[in-house]
Amino acid sequence: MAVTILFLGPLRDLAGTEALEVGAPLDWAGLLSAVAPAVAEQLRLERVNVACAGRVLADKTGLAAKDGDEVALLPPVSGG
């Protein structure tokens, strides 16, 4: 039983990997403890979003990933 965490953009550089597999189920506290401290610090920022099973969460602290889900960590989008 596992959840895959995907690190996108600059979060990938902070994590040092593209993906990490962790035990399921996975909640917000579990996510913060599963990733590197530098990534966890970024996740606490309002501008960083979290998607679970293809849906961006309105409240990322309500994360409830289950076996087979992918959790994508989405850095802020820059634009011009």
From TrEMBL:
Source taxon at top rank: Bacteria
Xref: InterPro entries: Beta-grasp_dom_sf, Mopterin_synth/thiamin_S_b, ThiS/MoaD-like
Pfam families reported for this sequence: ThiS (PF02597)
SUPFAM superfamilies (UniProt xref): MoaD/ThiS
Gene3D superfamilies: 3.10.20.30
Protein name per UniProt: MoaD/ThiS family protein
Species of provenance: Altererythrobacter arenosus
Taxon lineage: Bacteria, Pseudomonadati, Pseudomonadota, Alphaproteobacteria, Sphingomonadales
